[in-house]
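Practice set, problem 2.
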Amino acid sequence: MKLLILGGAGAMGAHASPELIASGRFDQIVIADVDLAKARQLAVIWGLTPEAATALDAADEAALRRLMAGQPAVVVNALPKAFTLNVARAAMATANLRVIDLSSLSPELRALEAEARAAGVTYVAGCGSSSGLTNMMAKHGARQMTEIESIEISFASFRSIALSPASIHGVFWEFGPDSVRGYVAGGEYKQVELWAEAKEIEFPQPYGRLTVYAVPHSEPRTLSRNLGARRVIVRGTFTPKVMRLMRTLVEYGFFAPGPVTINSTDLARRELIWQYLAQVPEANQEPVWGYALHVEVTGLVSGQRLRRTLWTTHPSSEQPGWSGSDAWAKCVALPLVAGSLLLAEGNYTGTGIDAPEAFLPAMPFLTELETRGLRVHEEIEELGER
């Protein structure tokens, strides 16, 4: 059984790759990365030969097709979001592949659904933390429900704003004023303003009680479609330090479209602050790192209204491999690992392009995570007859 990991030595791939290798479920593993020297070095550390690594320019669709022509059992895409459509098109040109991706299900990717079905491709999009694990927690919480009234997802993403170049843009997307954010109710998407739908959530320690806000995630659209939930919303927050910064940047107009002039040179406001954050050490410092998820599913089971509340915990920073930025990265990468292993063993259904809940079973997915230290807990509240 062959596994191909795209971006296998990158920020997320470097956390997913060793877990997939250690699973022992693959006969051959290929680590494709733009940094071949790093990929070869890591391959040896992880117990492979240097030849297991190969160079990849993900902007080259022909190169992606050549890699996939070896018919790997699973293609794991840990590349930045900018390359998602290239990977999807290459997979459909190859046909009959199983692909899993960290990047959320975008409208552009979803538009390739019919083409993927025709090619016999199963493309699991957005199998990170949120989206990804949140979808599977919601699916588990909705089990046996004949009617799903609501799914409310909350997350606390504790990392520095400048963990990587892409991470800055990620925070800008979540809490910038020009993103489209909202929720699904009654089959319609209801757009809301920045800082709307605020709610306080008691996350487990070391996170504590935090205020979360509506964010522009894909889960409302996919969970309402795939599970039939009448109302779905995703709220989130970053560290208090990051949230204070974003409020200040918005208040002082750093996301406005017009440029600012410095020494007779016009600079885009967003680019100015992005360059600053990418260079100063203060933007990459946080005392607590990790990821906490909280999902509430309310619906009917045998005529009774129930609310199932699910939440995650992970090992403390004193545990090997869970200190500093590793804790946050593992919370994102381990759901990608769990989904990859289910695809490899054939524990999935259907073809096309969709979110994890459309293809993968919830309980085996959560079990794979628990064996790696990322646990999902559940509490059930009976709300009486409807």
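Problem 2, part (b): a different protein.
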Amino acid sequence: MIERYVFLKLTEAAATPEGRRQVAERARELGQVAGVASLHVGLPADAAADGAWDVSLRVCFESTEALERYREDALHRRFVDEYLTPRLQVLKAWSFEV
């Protein structure tokens, strides 16, 4: 199993409670991408997280091959390239085998 952790810092204009909620809702659609075993989308739960990040994702895959297919999937590309990029200041992502 591969778990990919993604942390998003949004632009000042998008980093409002409503903006965070909208990005989180849109990100949940990524669970429809073939190969996604599970998807968890989070919003900051404490002051430290609130100061550092706006939205988090944990996306699970059965294999690294499934992760690579996800990264190239049209739905994922539209989310990142068309929806997220204009709202994004920083994106950090790491993948772990569990």
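Answer key, part (b): The chain has a mean pLDDT of 97. Residues 17-28 form the longest helix (12 residues).
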